[in-house]
Amino acid sequence: MFDTALSAADLWFLTKGAGMTILVTAVSVVFGTVLGIVFGVFRYQLGAIWAAPVTFVLDVSRSIPLLIQLVLANAFLGTVLRLQMSGFTVACMVLTLYTAAYCAEIVRGGIDAVPLNTRRAARSLGMTWAQDMRYIVMPLATRVALPSWIGLALGVMKDSALVYVVQVVELMKSTQILITRLQEPLFLLLICGLFYFVISFPLARFGGYLEKRWSND
Amino acid sequence: MIEIENVYKSFGALQVLKGINLTVPNGEVLTVIGGSGSGKSTLLTCINGLEKIDSGRILVDGTDVHAKSTDLNKLRQKLGIVFQQFNAFPHLTVLENVTLAPRKVLGQSKEQAREMAVKQLSHVGLGDKLDVYPSRLSGGQQQRMAIARALAMSPDYMLFDEVTSALDPQLVGEVLDTLRLLASEGMTMICVTHEMKFAREVSDRVAFFDKGVMAEIAPPAQLFDAPQTESLKTFLAATH
Asked: CATH number for the domain including A81?
């Protein structure tokens, strides 16, 4: 097993792939979370009926397999709208919407979990809606939502393996390229899995650290 | 002065306030008693605009609470309210619970707010709990913190909504002592309560609510010793 043809240059190639995975994930999770917070608050404030159009878009984004979304978005943006977009941009757009769709639900659940009485207490002290949201709802909802959000971020990171269909060479695609050349699938997949682990672990640990820090209040 | 004029309020088909008229002059301690569902707690949340009313008017220092043009956030600064549930902000320490609104709403500096908070917390006997989180406090302590939090806004009026009802019996006394202290300092207070002994002792007047109507209002000696209506007689007999 350790008699391998894998060279330092190949490892560097994998590392670059991992870098692309991190980049796509980071962009999508950051923008997706911001959008998700906006959509989540929007849905919470407006109620089911008024938020229906937004809910519909988010539901679509959650129900159609990511692979199909990527292919269709790429075809639509490139062939129909004739936009000169890189695969990277398309991948980030699709994954951002996908993240936002899940994040909106997490945010709504987090806001729902803040007791109404606590919010009334804040308002009765003369705080505005925005102050209540900022100083009471946000910190409390974050505590509730964090574990799901970490799960979402890790999920998006792994799902980003699908963006190879829009010609983005990330970790999984890099691995496949090496497998085709070196014919050592098990060993390479092991290395690839190790890369994924190294990327995920700090995020998971960071979540655990925050939960622990917040548990004493 | 708080003036309540012919206020009606329903939750769906349920009419909870049926034409309440009541004036509370400055410096008065008014307690409101009555069975559950009699509308007494709803009245308090209507006074500070947390609940809308169907008709009538509530004036606080001449300002119509439910008028569209009224800045409720501004008005609430002079109406402190303490609820049955303590409603501590669980992610903030005792000191932060008390300083949050003065800093963000009144724009006080950190030092200014801290000074006021320490004063109010010492006042209610929590001067040694500044950096503790609410989850480490007993119910009575949390409720006293909620009182200090409301007082830190320097309100002109304090509304107390069954503030001892969620407490273990042995913790009721410490909270009532705090209310007595406030009353003795001349704070204008409306206390919805089930503590008859307390009502008799601190009130200038006691109002008895029955099924959404203010059935009787009188100084405590008169109300408790010479009830006029059958419903109050029944209520007092049941609570003694």
From this structure: 1.10.3720.10
State which residues form the domain around A25: 9-211
CATH code of the domain in which B157 resides: 3.40.50.300
Mean pLDDT of A206-217: 81
Residue B88 C-alpha, separation from nearest chain A C-alpha, in angstroms = 7
Q: Could you tell me the two tokens for B216?
A: 């009787």
Interval A22-31 mean pLDDT: 96
Give the pLDDT confidence score for residue A2 in this predicted structure.
60
Burial of A181 (0-12, 13-18, 19+ CB in 10 A): exposed
| Of the candidates B194, B150, B214, the residue with the CA atom closest to the CA atom of residue B35 | B194
Mean predicted confidence (pLDDT) in A137-164 = 93
Domain count, chain B: 1
Q: How far apart are CA B117 and CA B111, in angstroms?
A: 10
The residues on A that touch B, with CB distances below 8 Å, are 115, 117-118, 120-128, 131, 135-136, 139-140, 143, 214, 216-217
Decide if B126 contacts B136 (C-beta within 8 A): no
**Gap between the Cα atoms of B111 and B60, Å rounded:** 31
The answer to the question of residue A17 being in a domain is: yes
A216 found inside a domain: no
Beta bridge partners of B15: B10
Distance CA B164, CA B178 (A): 11
Give the gap in angstroms from C-alpha B229 to the nearest C-alpha of chain A. 35
Kindly report, residue by residue over B47-96, the tens digit of the pLDDT. Answer: 999 999 999 999 999 999 999 999 999 999 999 999 999 899 999 999 99
User: Quick one: pLDDT at residue B173?
Assistant: 87
Which residues contact residue A39 at a Cβ distance below 8 angstroms, ignoring those fewer than 6 apart? Answer: A54, A58, A100, A101, A103, A104, A107
What range defines the domain where residue B180 resides? Answer: 2-40+49-239
Band (pLDDT 50/70/90 cuts) for residue A217 is low
Are A127 and B105 an interchain contact pair (Cβ–Cβ within 8 Å)?
yes
The neighbour count for residue B228, using CB atoms within 10 Å, is: 13
Total domains, chain A: 1
> Consecutive sets of 10 residues in chain B, 240 residues long: mean pLDDT of each?
94 92 94 89 93 94 92 92 93 96 94 94 92 92 94 94 87 88 92 92 93 93 93 88
Tell which phi-psi region holds residue B67, choosing left (phi > 0), alpha (psi between -120 and 50) or beta: beta
A19 within domain boundaries? yes
In a domain, A3, yes or no: no
Instruction: Report d(CA B6, CA B22) in Å as an integer.
Output: 8
